[in-house]
Structures
1.
Amino acid sequence: MLKIYHSQGARSLRVLWLCEEMGVPYETAEASFFKPSDEFKAVNPLRTVPAMTDGDVSMIESVAMMIYIMSKHGPTDLEVKPNEPGYADYLQYLMFGEAGIAAYGNPLVATRFLAPDDQKQNWTVEYLTNAIVKRLEFVCERLGDKQYVAANRFTAADISVSYIVNAAKFGGIDEKIPARMRAYYDNLAQRPAFQRAAAVK
């Protein structure tokens, strides 16, 4: 069984949400940012969340975990195949959710919680905030009046891209989320699988 090292608000939400959508069984273990357990540190010496084990397999990247789970436990409509319309958009937003958006949040969150008080507001914080907002506006433009970012259906790319709205509060930028992005996320958050995943402690 999959074992997912999870902390509420962390990228592990993506993995739990995917599992809930697919009906893939999993168990969770606590993954504290500030007081990591010895078990968690052994699985992921970088102490980043999430981490996942599946027998002898060990992984630390949330989007890679999603691809792994879909490949191993699929087929699933959450994955868009190369012969389907929307495949390129699916790939782009699956990766863009992390590499293009959420990765900018790491130093933002670290500065907010760990920097000395006189360094919590600086040029870099402003740059990171603007970079995230600019990329969310890009997603909003591409969404237009559509409900989903690829293939005219809900896919893993939506899970990847929408995660940042849930995490924005930790970076202190919740109020800067564009209204169109908020509406997109709020619609996805009505899914029972999301609600089950979000409730996991």
Note: The two ends are 19 Å apart (CA to CA).
2.
Amino acid sequence: MAESTRQQIVDAADDLFYGQGFAQTSFADIAAAVKISRGNFYYHFKTKDEILDAVIDKRLADREALLAKWDETAAGPVDRIACFVKIVIVNQSRIMAFGCPVGTLTTELFKLGHPSAGKANRIMALFRDWLVRQFEALGCGDRSTDQALHVLGWSQGVATLSQAFKDEAHVEREVRRILAWLDDVAGSPSAVQ
């Protein structure tokens, strides 16, 4: 039961940090979402920073599992990168409402000068490193890091514009464009800038 309550707290905090932001979310908000007393809440977490660390750990584990699934199920590096690209459509309604869960939290924590900012950035680094491996498998060699950062930067930009303009057609056009670029890279890994 205690582990279940702890996980409910982390899940609720994850949703609230995403929807409201870390700084705007209080202990009371999280306790209300889980429907537990503050005393029971403090049994599991003494500080909001402890909850934040648990949320970052959850997000990191969730993203590692997603990337591992794509590694296992997608036919090759182009298909795996395409899975990453299409995530902005899969999660479009939430991204349009709140932005990218990884980018928004990392940015907020860096703006706050929060000590967990570097830990939150491990998720972005996870994406970068995974994408680098995909481009290496595609044969991009020394260009793999640049290509990976291009896709990662593209996804963050699309998420930001999606939230700003709420334009589904724009997101779909951008996904088609980046997938066409990916096809060009796959056709000639060293030629595409």
Note: The chain has ten helices and no strands.
3.
Amino acid sequence: MLGLTLAVVLGFWLGNQFFSYQQKAILTLENTVQNLQLENNELSKNLNILRVELDVAALSQQKTFAEIKQSIDREKALQKDIAFYQQVMAPELTQQGFIIDAFNVEKTLSDRVYRFEIVMMQREKIKNTLKGNLDITLVGSESGQSKQYSLKSLLVNPELALAFGFKYFQVLDGQIQLPEQFQPERILVQSEIFQFNRKKGELHSSFDWTLSNSSE
């Protein structure tokens, strides 16, 4: 009888211990599930934020591409306008393909002395010798007033001839010294073009005063 009582008591105690263990295990699992749900919610939130940022980046990229395309289209339209007006102003020169490709200016070590370089060329396949003289004017301001100077009058070497004669291309360079207080802004180039001693037309070009390798 005593042994049966002890067995019942022992069985009851073991049952309580197992039940308590199960309760603790269930509580641990519930906490784990809750933590996983919180972590999942945080990950979902971050994922949504990343998706929004990705969508914004894609829209920004599309906008950038659209702006680049618009800039390219504007440049093409401007080039067509320039070509049209060149044909109106001097169609014979357009046919001959004579252009001033560049007017470069750079500062020297001497005070207010600048080196200039004019690049002229023909772009047509059939080229005949073109000749002429360049009339170059610097436009700017001096002491708060508008002022112009002939580049010829500013030459360091006054004997330099601003003339050209070429079939393919020619580079004309020299040095000028600017007057005190004069701030150049634009460069105007005019020329009468001759071929076989006959006048073919006139050229009018304008360039901004921009230094190639330094700043004033």
Note: The chain has a mean pLDDT of 79.
4.
Amino acid sequence: MGSSAIASLTPETTRDTVNTGLDAKYRKEISKDLSDILAATYRLTIKSHVYHWNVVGPVFKPIHDLTEEHYNALFGATDIIAERIRALGYLAPVSLDGMKSFAPEKSDIDQSSAHEMVQDLIDEHEQACRDARKAGEKAGDNGDLVTEDMLTERLTFHEKACWMLRAIIAS
């Protein structure tokens, strides 16, 4: 392919030439689902990092350590999710318009106990479980083994995160 042919490739023509055995309509739908999961993963990464910095109290150390482990794993997952969107023929989301809404407000942190921070993270991870499960089922129904496998891995991470976070605040 000459340089002029490469220069003429647009996201639309690239998308139109993807022929990996997945229906074009499905690829568009799952790419949207994965874009939403990617945004939620970034939000949870940032929340985990902010809580890592600001947690106080008797359970500081286990929360501090666990949130560090989580935000590192979550950040790594963003690349995997974005690359899957690209492999499906779509652009990974590039807008930063909503980034401000990803982090908790200072007033929320000032008023949050360690228990409230952990509960907030549990709620986010549970939503991630529901979203990954729904998209994974759609991927499976459409024969998209790669996306299904990736989402199974994400679901495994989020379910384990819920368990570990719950164990920290168990009474």
Note: Helices lie at 3-7, 11-17, 24-54, 60-87, 106-111, 114-141, 145-169.
